[in-house]
Structures are given as C-alpha cells and as structure tokens.
Amino acid sequence: MKKRVPVGILAATGAVGQRFVQLLADHPWFEITTVTGSDRTVGQPYGEGVNWVVPGDPPAAVHDLIVQETVPNLDVPVVFSALPTALAHEWEPKFAAAGYVVVTNASAYRMTPDVPLLIPEINPDHTGLIPAQKAARDWPGFIVASPNCSTTSAVLPMKVLQDAFGLQAAVMTTLQAISGAGYPGVASMAIMDNVVPYIGGEDEKLEAEPRKLLGALNAGAASIELAAMQLSAQANRVPVTDGHLASVSVKLSRPASPAEAVAAFEHWRPPAVCAELPSSPERPLIYRHESDRPQPRLDRDAEGGMAWTVGKVRECGVLDLRFVSITHNTLRGAASGSILNAELLLVQGYIEG
Amino acid sequence: MKKRVPVGILAATGAVGQRFVQLLADHPWFEITTVTGSDRTVGQPYGEGVNWVVPGDPPAAVHDLIVQETVPNLDVPVVFSALPTALAHEWEPKFAAAGYVVVTNASAYRMTPDVPLLIPEINPDHTGLIPAQKAARDWPGFIVASPNCSTTSAVLPMKVLQDAFGLQAAVMTTLQAISGAGYPGVASMAIMDNVVPYIGGEDEKLEAEPRKLLGALNAGAASIELAAMQLSAQANRVPVTDGHLASVSVKLSRPASPAEAVAAFEHWRPPAVCAELPSSPERPLIYRHESDRPQPRLDRDAEGGMAWTVGKVRECGVLDLRFVSITHNTLRGAASGSILNAELLLVQGYIEG
Amino acid sequence: MKKRVPVGILAATGAVGQRFVQLLADHPWFEITTVTGSDRTVGQPYGEGVNWVVPGDPPAAVHDLIVQETVPNLDVPVVFSALPTALAHEWEPKFAAAGYVVVTNASAYRMTPDVPLLIPEINPDHTGLIPAQKAARDWPGFIVASPNCSTTSAVLPMKVLQDAFGLQAAVMTTLQAISGAGYPGVASMAIMDNVVPYIGGEDEKLEAEPRKLLGALNAGAASIELAAMQLSAQANRVPVTDGHLASVSVKLSRPASPAEAVAAFEHWRPPAVCAELPSSPERPLIYRHESDRPQPRLDRDAEGGMAWTVGKVRECGVLDLRFVSITHNTLRGAASGSILNAELLLVQGYIEG
Amino acid sequence: MKKRVPVGILAATGAVGQRFVQLLADHPWFEITTVTGSDRTVGQPYGEGVNWVVPGDPPAAVHDLIVQETVPNLDVPVVFSALPTALAHEWEPKFAAAGYVVVTNASAYRMTPDVPLLIPEINPDHTGLIPAQKAARDWPGFIVASPNCSTTSAVLPMKVLQDAFGLQAAVMTTLQAISGAGYPGVASMAIMDNVVPYIGGEDEKLEAEPRKLLGALNAGAASIELAAMQLSAQANRVPVTDGHLASVSVKLSRPASPAEAVAAFEHWRPPAVCAELPSSPERPLIYRHESDRPQPRLDRDAEGGMAWTVGKVRECGVLDLRFVSITHNTLRGAASGSILNAELLLVQGYIEG
Description:
Four copies of one chain form a homotetramer.
Chain A: E1 5-10, H1 15-24, E2 30-35, H2 46-49, H3 60-63, E3 78-81, H4 85-97, E4 101-104, H5 130-137, E5 142-145, H6 149-165, E6 167-176, H7 188-191, H8 202-213, E7 216-217, E8 224-225, E9 230-237, E10 244-252, H9 258-267, E11 285-288, H10 296-299, H11 302-305, E12 308-315, E13 321-327, H12 331-347
Helix pairs in contact in A: 1-12, 6-8
C-alpha cells in the first residue's frame, strides 16, 4: 500500500464527524483531504470553525483544511458520512450517483434492501449487494451503512449464538451512554441523577437491524434474507459518558447450557478477512467470567474501543439464556465501525487502493 | 386512636434504620420509644451516636433516646427491624419468641412459608398466615416481612396484569439506585460514569419474591401457594441516588392489547383496607402516557414516594407486552413499606392499638 | 388578608417560570391568574403548552390558563418576570411604564441605580428607592430585582460579617449546580464527569451585586451607595442538580477570631419585617459545626430551600477568615427569592393587598 | 541503558499500587520484579490476589509474581512505596536503613527537612539533600517523596509566577476527583449529586507543601529554606472520576498584567534535565486561551496525563491575579510523578543504572 486513499468527511464539524477526523488523522490507508460542514463553518479553516468537543485538540493535519459545502464536487473517491438523518437521506444518494463511495454512519438507508448494513466481523459477504445496488440505480458509486450503536452493542454475541445454536428470539434492554446523542444532545437537567427510558427510534432499530445483520445474502446477491427471529427492545439513557450495555435474554433453536454458550463465545473467531483490516481488533469478543462484568467504564476501551465484552451468561427463567454485552458506542458503535467497513471495501476491491 | 403504640427500631443507626426513625418521628399511630444499635453506639444518645446520612437532621423526638443493645428486653410491643441479614436471621426469631411483633425489612425470612411477605396494596390477606406461624413455632409474637426493593419496583403492575389477564412469565431488567445498597454501600469509584450489572442475590430475589407476593393463601391458611409463573431477572446498579426502574416483558394467559393493559392500570384500585392506612397513598399506581416516562428523578417522589409510576406499555416482539415501572427504593421499597405493613397489622388487629 | 392579589407570570413556560408557577400555586397572598409564554405556546392551555421539567406535574389551578403574549395588557397589578435577559431588558420597563409592579428574577436592571436589588433578610429598606424610580421615569409602576443565584449563595454570611466586623474584601470560588442554567441549559456531554470553570457573566455579577446588596440607601433615597469592598470571583459549574456552594475568604475591618465569626452567624437575626413574610424561613441562616458541611445534597433543602447553610469558618492564611456557604439556587436563589420580595412589597404597601 | 533496574512496589495491590504496576510494566529503565501486599494477598500470584480496580487488566509481566510481605528483604535496589500513611511512617525508614532507595508517594515524610519533596520540573536540585539525609541518619539508602495530588495541581503555575514576578501569597480552592481517595474511598452516597467541602488533612497539605517545593536548597545542602509566602486553601471533593482543578488567586512581588502572566506561562521551559527523563512530557505546561478551559475531562489526559493545563488568567479584584490549573491526580499527581522522580534519581546517579 504505497499511497493513502484521499477521503472526505461529510459533516466533519459535528460530534460524530470529529470522531472520524480524530480516528482517520493517522490512518495507514486513508488520508483526510476534504472536510465539509454547516453553512456557519464553510470557508473557515477546520481548526477554527469547529467547536471541538472530544478530548484533546483537532489533529494538526486537518487544522488548516478549509471546510467545504456538502455537495458532490469534492476531489476524493470516498466520503465518510456523519450527516444527520434528514441530510443523509437527501445527499447520500446524490454522492453515490456522482460516483462516490459513501461509507455512512447515518440511519437513512440502513434497512434499504440493496444497501449493505455491515460489520466486518459479522457479515463481510454482504458487500456482495454492491453490484446489484449500482446496477439497479445506475450509480457509479454506492452506499454502505453501519448499524445503530445500540444494535452494535448486542449483535456480535447474538451472531455467535446464532452460528452455534440457532437464535429464535431476543428480549433486550439497553443502558446507553449520553455520547450516543451527540453534542449538545441530552440536557444535563434531563439525565443527571436520572434514567430516561426513551431514545427516539431506538427501540425500532434494535428490533429491525439485527435481523439484517444476521441475515443471508440471497442467491442473486440482490438483497438480504432477514434472519427469522423475534426481537423486543427497550432502550434507556443512563448517566454514563461512553459505552452501551445490553441486557439480553435469548431463545435458541437447539438447547445449550450456559457453559456451552460461554465456550461458543470463547472459541469464536472472526472471519479471516478481519486479520487484514488495521482497525479490526485482535480479540473482537472478550468473555469475562467475573460476576460483575462487563462494565462500561472498565470495558469500553478494551482493544482500543473496538471489542465486544460479554459476560454473565446464565439460564433465563423464561427463555433459554441471558447475557450482558458492552461496546464503546462512539468507537466500535459509530466512527471506528464505519472506518472498519471502508477498510473491508478496500481489501475486497470495492475501493481502489 | 387515642394513644400511639410505642415501637422500637432495631439497628436504628444504619441507613435503613435512619429512614425508619425519620418516617416514624411524626407517625399518627406509632411512637418511637426505643432504638437499638451497634456496640459502638450503645449507651449514647441517638443524636450523638448516629452518623446521620439522610438529608436533614435526626428528629428532635429521638435525639436523646439512649441507644440500646439489640436483645429482646425492650419495653415495646412492636419492633421494626433494619438488621443486616445475618443478624436478622439470628435475632428476629428470638424477638418473635419473646412476644414481639417483628415488622422486618430484612431478607432473612421473606421466603419462609409461614411468614407473610406483604404489600398491603397487593396481598393484605396474607397476614392470615400469622396464627399458623405462631402456632407452629409456639411463639407469642410473629414476623412479617417486606419484599426486596427491586421486587417492589416491578410487582404491583405485575399484580394488575395478573388480575386482569393472568400472568405466565416476566423477563425483567432493573436499573437500581445506589441508596439501595445503604451506607457506605457502593464505592463512588465503582459506579460513577458506570453501570454495574451485578447486585449480590438480587436476581434470585427478583425471580422468587413476586411468586410469593402474587400467590394465594392456602385453604388451611398455613402457607402460600406460589404463583405459577416463570421469572427471569438481571439487576443493574446505575448512578442514580434514589429510585429503582424495572423494564419488564410479560407473557399473559389471555391476550391483551397495550390499550387494554393501560386501561387495567388506570382502573385498578387498591383493596378497601388501604383507605384506612395513613401511609397508603391516594393513588398507589400512576400511569403516565408520555413516551419518556417514568423517570427516577421525576417520578420517585410521587405520592410522597409511595406510588408506583408505570408507563411505556406496548407490544413485546417476543412475549406479549412490555412496560416500565418505578418506585422509590428507600421509601416504598424499604422503610415506608414496612411501616405500611405495621399499619395494616394494627387495622387487622394483629397489633393492639 | 381576605382576597389574594391576582398576579401574572411572564415567561411562565420556561424553567424559572415553572418554578414560579409551582411555588405560587398555593400562595396565601398571591393567585396566578395570568401566564405568558413564547409564540409557540401562546393560545394553548398552560398544562398542554408547557414542557414541564421540574418534578411533579403542573398544578391543577394553572393547568387550564390560556398562555398569553408577553405584552402589557394583562389583567393583573403584579407580574413576576422570568424573562430571558434580552426580553427582560426590552419588556420590563414597558410593563412598569404601563403601571405594573414588576418583580423580576432577570439580570437586566439589577445594577440600575434606582432599581432595588433586594433580599428581604439583607436590605428591606432598599425598597425606599421605588418612589424615586417612579418619579424619575414618570412610571405608575416599578421594577424590583433579585440578585443572581450565585451572588445569593454568598451574600448573607457576608452581610453578617459586615455588620459584626466590617467587610473589606472577599475572594470567592463558587461550585454551581446545573439547574442554574435552566433547561436545556448545560449539555450533559459538557458537564458529566467534569467541571466547567466558566459561567457567562457570572464572575462579573459576583463581583458587582454584593456591593449593591450590602450598600446603603442614600440620603435622598434616590440611589444606593455601593459598599466599599473589593471582590474577586471564579464561578464553576459542577455536576450537581441543585444547590450552589461558595468558598469564600474575607478581609475584615476589625480582627475577629473564627469563634467570634461563628458566634456572629449564630446570633444573627433577620430584620423584624421578615417575620411577617410567609416565605421567609424561621432560620434563614443555619451554622453547621461538622467539618464536612455544608453540602449541596444534604443542606440545599433546609427550611424549604430558603436557608443559607454556612460552615467551615476558620483562619485564612492570606486574608482573615474563610467559610463555605450554600443555598438552593432555584428556590432561595431564584423564584422563591422573588416571591419573598413581592411579599415584602405587599407588607410595605408597595403592592396593594 | 542496557539492562533495566529491578524495582519493587510496596503495597502493590492497593489502588495507587495498581497504578505503579500499570505504569512500570513497560518502563524503559525499570523492571518490576517484586511486589508486596497485605497479609490477605501474600503468597498468591499478583494477578489472582489483586482486586484490580483500574481499567484494563493486570499486565501479563506482573501476573505471576508472588506477592511478598512488606519487609526489607526484597531483592531489588529500589522500591516504590504506595503504602498507607501509618505503614509508610513505620516502614519507609526501615527500608532506607536497609539500603533501599525509597521513592514514595506517601505523605509520612514529605515535610521532613532532609527528605527531598520533589517534582523534577520544579526543583530537581532538591535531591542535593540526599547526602545529608544519609549522613545524618547513617543510612545506606534514602527516601525521596512526591507531594500530595492537590498540591501538585496548583504548584507548577505558582513556580512560574514565582520565577517571573515573585510570589507572596495564594488563596486556593480545589475541586478534586474521587480517585484521589483510592478504593473504595468515597462512598457514592456521599458524593453523587453532591460536593463535600472536606478532605481530611488536605487543606493543611496545600498550605504547607508548596512552600517546600518552591523553597531553596540551603548553603550546606542539609535542608530547604521554605519559600516565604502566605497560603490559604479549601479542598472540595466533586463528582468527577479523575482530575484535580485548582482555582487560585495570587499576590505577586512585582506587578504583572494578565498578558504578562500568560506570556510567562507560555515561555516557561522545564529544567534541562527533564529532556532526559522518559516520563517527562514534551510540554509540561499547556496554557489554553478558551474562556471555559481547563476542564478535568478534556484536559486531564493531556501529554499522557503528565501536563499541567492552565487557563483563565485575569486580574483578581482583591489580590493581583487569578488562574485555574488542572492535573491528572493519579498520574501526574501520584504514581507517574513518583516514577518521574526515580528517573531523575537515575540520571543524577542516585540510583545506579
């Protein structure tokens, strides 16, 4: 890999965009050469226009890039989209139609049948949808999406159980960090010394997205057969800065004891392609045996914020098994997850290196 | 009620004991005349020996009571027990054997077949066990217990659904406040910016106690037939000062729509006897229609901390319905709950007024 | 007092306005008959238009009042103003010019020479400015202001020391609760697990307002001679829901030992008129001797949130003495403080009862 | 540096000891070969005996070291002491008497005249006390101490001002993180939604230690002439996980404007020896111009948690200038600070490399 692929970040001045900037600043394969932002910031150097809300400072390499308008005339082949939903809905297809590879963190097209909803450790073959997507819409470019950060927190252990025992149903309750709502996001008056049992649209995403992620690419590679499983979710906001926790009860196709499930977690290995991706962690799934783990503050940063930490597998008195799973919502669950998707696209040849 | 019944508080210097002291200081029917405490505090005036950890100051009426040893030679007919489990296990039977009415908040005898596990709004008839308890053990006194504060948070809405539609199963995930662990309880280093998915023994209590509370007094009034329902629970500690939240999915015997369940919650009325109990709230169950309620900080103090606030009833994609319920864990879920039990005992004649 | 004085609340739908509504709902002397709000809410019943953010529900008595525009055609003699600064600047004089008594919590006119900046326990005679204010501007009505909530937290103990020993200088550092910023106010991402050493304009208010509150009404009763003292302040936002803490070092005119200062705090009594005011607490100043008090969570609600709790008086190694003081910022420091001012105006005859 | 110096950690199983373990695991100059712990853990492999409370896991290199008793028969020339005060008082002299270099984070001997109280960026020459210490006590080894973490947070900017303008007095109020109290440390019931204006002994340390750190080695190099300055401090615990903030007002010997002080901060450079120390950051002092910085969550990790971040320099209405300073209390303020001291000792030849 001689030269880094130049990339743009759409909505680089928002909270998710800032994470893209921070994480891509030293990326071995990609180089940020373009950033776009709101009307307020267009025309300013990024380092001056941005209201930087993540720890540290804007990376030097990006400091003097002039913020562009979010229109498809950027001089890069690949854009990472941190656009808000409505703007993503409008602009991502325009970028794909103009030939860009759009790697998005937005929800607008996640459930669109010919758009891959992708986590390389789970369904790297779903990129097989890309040719059909391009053909059907007559696009030179295409869109690839990441799941919602709450979905991410629960879905890898679900995948492991699905592979090992078959997965028929999951009842989920999530405890989600405030950073999932961006900045300014949740008012401190709303969440301090409190829990809010509501995150707009999140229950629905938790009940839909896993079925696509755990689904199978159809014969013609034109759509995904959604996994046949029942899902039920209740998303809660809790006063934690980072890290989403999912408390999950599952019904399996074949009976399994807690010990067998733990063994499945411990023996699971990611698809071979993950070994080639710089952002894929050595151990994507860490099983902890302590009775009080996983915990957001202690486990969210495992493997650079890219691992799922799972624990507390035991019998469920109603379904079959219970477990608890945690991921870092703004790393694995957002910007880093999209970057990992772009790495997969490059290895698979969908992005030219 | 001419004269107040003199009562003692066992372990009055601990966190739960302090709540008993605070709540009983102005009680219309009971008067604190005796307090017991640890060896360190015995012999001191209560107001000086206690390390007061609840807002405000120790009530004047109790300030000068000399702390006694916790032995059954107290000059009162009724004792409220805030003893830790091991001490409760040892001493509560000795008090009952010595003729005291023991109204306990401890877990030691909750699941003992002939000890009523009591919430007046749910099962006031379970005091019918008392004669059998006294007879079987040849005790002049007896023990009556309150459920764990996490059980309490979920059990009244379960009762309402049981009465209206039959209740076959419940999958519960709780988000519990730090005050549930007493003082010093949870280390701030353990819970700040964090969630701990473990509270010792709490999952088991959540999976056992509701079956007794929702069970039926047997023909001979010598035991409770546990309710035939499957229960599964995951208890989590969250950084909230007060208020336990339960996220519950239920399977019903007869199908019910969310609207029917909401109607059941809104039309439910407590047993008639509750109207006579000074600590029983006017509205023990408040249903809120806002999509983001109930919340601990906004709802825990409803009806003086004695109400269940329920919301978010909707279809469960796996079982039948989901809902969220909140109670104040140190009021309804602990000291106030026990005081309410004592009020019931007095009205029913088990305590002499 | 036969009939309650009808009053209006300007900006009743905001966070401060809601506190006015809550506190005035059962006031013995005042009756809310009019509420105003933003364009979005005008014309709606208050209970439906308001996004209620304080615990509990909007009081029944106010639920059906139709929200009015904030213009001086309201059918009440007295308005409580919870307007944001810019609107207060524009509209409060118009209300006064139209004959209304304007009791404001806003900062717009606090330091205006002929507007009383008032805390009844400190300077009830400053209402003596009112005739001059009306005369100079040819207003049938007038404006009376409350200080900033951070000023309030420190100023009563400063008054006591001023009276007892003379006060030459104060170096203040405050630790202020998030509710001081209203709703949505401070983003949770900004303050959780954090301290923000900046609150816009607050240092300046802390360095100016005490000089007026502790100043003397001039001979002609046309202005206040500012107290001759040096002030220095650093305001910090901390992750606390309610309660402002001030850490203060003072230089006195006459030397005093810590014991003498404590005696001054303990012997201080409010002006006689306070005994007539329903919102004035029995003990406006509580001195606590524990080494770890006052604390926001334990002391903010003392005397219904209307008391100053002071502690930790000791020698300052640089100036003369140090102490710590706490008040409830949205009660004593905001809405309740203004209501107390209105009570004083009624007793003094500036409002007709 | 061919071979790493073998070192021991005293009280390696406590919270501070764990930080030493974590930070020394990959140190270029030192190698942990010995750990000591409480009776409970002696004889167990470290990884099993320790109740690990910092994020991540115990380093592999230390996992199998058998925990030793804390007695001076360890096979290392250097020990890092994380002992509690009372044990430090008893055991550190015994280790020094037995020939060990004792690099301590404990408070027991900080103010002892012939024990260097050391921060390499401030007073690296104070190690000049070591020969006198050894001679006076006839010790083959010696003790070197780090200051309290609250002292550390304020003292480097004080040093810069002292050098540039002379420093006569400082009034300090600190806002300190819970991790400063170790584990379990502060009860969550005590600090959640709260501020505690008391940390045992901390005010006194803040009023004493800076005078030694900023003092001068006497002619005979047998003691430190304490800096002639007046100090006054109020330490507060706030609900923040890591990072101590100090709000400081200072009186200077020569008048200086805020701009001159900012220039002094920006132009200050550490002593030349610091460039040789692996743990000394490139920029030990970062001045931030934003009006709302420094903040614990955003600035505590600057330069790997080893930098002071200073901001908000402005005129003080009572003394001369005010500023705010932040450090990471368990890194710069504790374990990392002691490691840096050991690096200095090695470069200066007091430890043999």
